[in-house]
Amino acid sequence: MTQKIAFFFPGQGSQSVGMMAGLENNPIIKQTFTEASDILGVDFWAMATKPNELLNQTQHTQPLMLTAGIATWRLFQQMTQHIKQNKDALQPNIHAGHSLGEYTALVASNALSFADALPLVKYRAEVMQSAVPEGVGAMAAILGLDDETVRAVCAEAAQNEICAAVNFNSLGQVVVAGNKAAVERCMELAKAKGAKRALPLPVSVPSHCTLMKPAAEKLAEYLKSVNINTPQIPVMHNADVASYDDSAKIKDALVRQLYSPVRWVETVQKIHAQGIANAAECGPGKVLAGLTKRIVADFPCVALTSNEAILELINNN
Hints:
globular; 4-stranded antiparallel beta sheet; single chain; alpha/beta; 5-stranded parallel beta sheet
């Protein structure tokens, strides 16, 4: 009997040189990267496989991560159809993506075309970067404090600037964002409150806080010309921990996501509570697999970073 399964798609932070190493011998992987490169005029395969300075530049990272996630998704589909021969083929019951990964989830759910998604996420990255001048914003990870304490520390650190808890990644792991000086005050206050660690993150954009509202307004305008269909597989959105069938509501959730917290803990908990027994991280790295284990101990999540991992998932379901 096929068990219910969720697919999780990672966002920025999971990119690295050699990120497709376990899957690169599959033609469909390279084909997907070539398709993305042709659409945006950037050699994403070189970016993913050779040391370079472009990998961590937001306007490249976002379409690169989308491409990597969809390449992995297409390989999974190809392998499950071959093995199952369309009999009881493994099909996820729900999708969710962490921040940028939400766009990958929508493509995998056939709500958004890959050809439309690539320029969309590139534009998203560009307006995020332009919304806050370099050096003005910052993000930091606070480890070892509960959510309410982190929120209180952010409020105290703000001092008429912006400082907010923006990524609830797992219990005791919260990312904060805002004006650089406020985030620095937040880190010191968090340590004083007993945080195990307070680490600045190597990012140039303070994502998911209200400093991103100007970017959200531009994204909303851009989305007016983008076709979004009803997802064939439900997608749980970051901003609301809810899924939508309506195009306008999906676009609204994507816009609000830019300046709203990523409620990843609640997302994983809600999906598991719906009777989903297993999960798979569909994209480079194992970040979400690790977070899932820390959020719900009995919710196994396999990272699909090799043919063997995909085969095991298919054969066990």
